[in-house]
Amino acid sequence: GDSVTQMEGPVTLSEEAFLTINCTYTATGYPSLFWYVQYPGEGLQLLLKATKADDKGSNKGFEATYRKETTSFHLEKGSVQVSDSAVYFCALNENDDMRFGAGTRLTVKP
Amino acid sequence: DTAVSQTPKYLVTQMGNDKSIKCEQNLGHDTMYWYKQDSKKFLKIMFSYNNKELIINETVPNRFSPKSPDKAHLNLHINSLELGDSAVYFCASSPETSFHNEQFFGPGTRLTVL
Fold first, then answer.
1. How far apart are alpha carbons A24 and A22 in whole angstroms?
2. For B88, which residue in chain A has the nearest alpha carbon?
3. CA–CA min distance A3, chain B (Å)
4. What's CA A20's distance to the chain center, in Å?
């Protein structure tokens, strides 16, 4: 079945550092891909999404490109802030079957 | 206005009790879900439900049952609570029509079974 694998955390960075969180997926067809963010004590919020190959999702300085050839959807941000500290989930949706990765905890230190 | 709301936010109860968690969405969505998030933040789908079909994750014990009084509500009822049921439970919803849709999550209910 479909699945999502993302890099294990925790990830600790200094403010203004470059962020990459890797995500790869397996799917039978052509899923939509998502990144969700969960801030401490809150529910999941959609960060960005891409619905077809080569689409780039972007929001709040975060970007991810749907790479069909490598089945990847890596999350990047050029300069992280303390307020970006959260758990990030990669996810795919194929035929209304949403699968989440295990989550990656990011801590950004001032 | 909150799009997907859950009550209560925190629930502490004894083993063996029966409890319910309520979920409401005001987005007009057709499909609703329940997820369980364990202490390691791993999210697991428990149920998905629309007005046509209930899909149950086969690993969910039958002590858990979703109840939908109407399209905007999907409550989670849990019988004979066990210690291992302690987790954060998230409700979510999405439009039915497209598999490209994201899901909108509620704030979560932290259940602690003593």
1. 7
2. A43
3. 12
4. 9
Phi and psi at residue A77, to the nearest 5° = -150, 135
User: In angstroms, rounded to a whole number, what is the distance separating the alpha carbons of residues B82 and A18?
Assistant: 43
Contact between chains at B41 and A44 (C-beta distance less than 8 A): no
**B43-90 confidence digits (pLDDT tens):** 888 988 887 678 778 789 999 999 988 889 999 999 999 999 999 999
Q: How far from the centroid of its chain's Cα atoms is residue B41's Cα?
A: 16
- Alpha-carbon distance B41 to nearest alpha carbon in chain A (angstroms): 7
Q: Are B66 and B36 in contact (CB under 8 A)?
A: no
- Whether cis (ω within 30° of 0) applies to the bond prior to B66 is no
Nearest to A37 by CA among A109, A99, A100, A110: A100
**pLDDT higher than 70, residue B96:** no
- The residue type found at B67 is K
